[in-house]
Amino acid sequence: MAETVTPSGTTPSTPFGSSSGTTGPTSHLLASLAPLLRAWLPRQRWFAGKGRPVTGFTPVAVTELLPPDGRLGLYHLLLRVHQPSALGGPPHPGDCYQLLIGVREALPPRLAPALIGHLEDGPLAGRTVYEALHDPRPAEVLLEALRTQARVGGLCFERDPRQEIREGLVARLMTAEQSNSSVVYGDTFILKLLRRVVPGVNPDLEIPLALAREGCPRVPAPTAWLRAELADEPDGSYVLAVLQPYVSGATDGWELALRELAKGEDFVAEARALGRATAEVHTALARALPTVTLGHAQLRLLVDGMTERLDAAVQAVPALRPYAHALRSAYEALADLAAEGRIWTAQRVHGDLHLGQCLRSPSGEWSLIDFEGEPARPLAERRMAQPPVRDIAGMLRSFDYAAHSAALAAPDWAHACRAAYCSGYAEVAGRDPRTDPVLLRAYETDKAVYEVVYEARHRPDWLPVPLSAVRRLATSESI
Length: 479
Hints:
Layout: H1 25-40, E1 56-66, E2 72-82, E3 95-104, E4 115-118, E5 128-131, H2 136-147, E6 151-152, E7 155-159, E8 171-173, E9 181-185, E10 189-193, E11 196-197, H3 203-214, E12 224-229, E13 237-245, E14 251-252, H4 253-262, H5 268-288, E15 292-294, H6 296-316, H7 324-339, E16 344-346, E17 358-360, E18 366-368, H8 379-382, H9 389-405, H10 411-429, H11 437-458, H12 464-474
Antiparallel strand pairs: 1-2, 2-3, 3-5, 3-11, 4-5, 6-7, 7-12, 8-9, 9-10, 10-13, 12-13, 14-17, 15-16, 17-18
Helix pairs in contact: 3-5, 4-9, 5-10, 6-7, 6-11, 7-11, 9-10, 9-11, 11-12
């Protein structure tokens, strides 16, 4: 691998997208890419800034992984994308995105969906650039770099030396909609490439490593990972990708639930098993990483955060306004309990648990995946200790989503799943989440409010699903 890649280092921190202010071949390349990326980025499922124009870019790092002097070239880019602030807020520094740009003279028909565009000028004028993960060869370059623990510029390809990575595994890009990109290698490994990246310790690597040390079988142990070490960046290190064993033949919980719904079958046994699996992961996390006690002061901060998110959501989605007062009462009821002296234990949790983050193997065992947390929230918040009910609320909302995705809404199906999930959780954890209804309602309300904003921005046709939960939670109905 070391012979086939050439580092180009990092670029200046001057924004590109116009012909002024940058010099050198890398700057010319980025300037020629900018018009194509402005049009291409907003169309990507994982791009978080939809609805706002892209006004420019700042290069964070550009690394040449394959020199473009042959049939194929490959560039790794970390780009800060500039857009106007949402809702007229203060200027935003811009989200940083990870891109893998392939370069060819012309694209074969099989790669047509990956097209970014044709370069008219710059050092690669006349060539075609495309999303490289659609192409097996560039994807296999990444695996080989992980296998050999290469270091290219600021990119550090690292792995667990106790796990073997065989050569010659064929790559294929997973096409399911997700907020990142995933490549499967020969039904042996899956590489999750993070798209919107932030510096610091990423829980998507931190938590599975901690669970692996605990011997928890419910989460695949990381085999290898990619980091960027950038001397010019204030926080320095970015986690960019994680390679884990691929559960061949597995079905994700969302697909499985929809299949059972379509057949008119219940999902109670699977929901109970999922509850047990969740409790096993929470129990292992409580052993592996520190826990904290939440008293009145800590709960007040937590409630204030929920209230602020609700206030922002009401401004963004007017359909929430009739329910705002009642939803706020769910949070204040929790604050009242804390003021009376009630305490809770908080620990590291999944942070974005739903049916799509769960895999059932052909043998019937459940695994939990994707510990990144909600990508829209700050990294420090995603790494905070939380009551385990945070994850439980997310799963309860997911059952509701599945029930409303059927040809005919099935609220009784969702109710049965929610109850079974809580019962399964209690079998392992020794406590049923329903015995703390105030805490559960507050977290489920916070999750539903988040969903309302997400759907309003990204999938307006789905907005009635979380709004139906908002109506239920506003009337204080139990699980």
